[in-house]
Amino acid sequence: MAESAPSRPPLALIANDQEWSIRSLESILAPNGYAILRAYNGQQATELALETAPDVIILDADFSDMPGVDVCSTLRNDPRISPCSPILITTAGRWTRDQRLEALSAGAWDFLSLPLDAEELLLRLGVYMKIKTEADRTREESLVDPITGFYNLKGLMRRARELGTDALRHERPLACVAIAPDLSGEVSLERQADSAALWAAVNRVAEVFRSASRVSDVIGRVRLGEFVIIAPGTDEEGARKLAQRMVGMAEMLESADEGAPSLTLLAGYDAVENMREAGTQPGALLAGATTALRQSQGEPGGPAIRQYQKDS
Question: Beta strands of 20-152 (E only): which ranges?
Answer without folding.
Answer: 35-39, 56-60, 87-91, 110-113
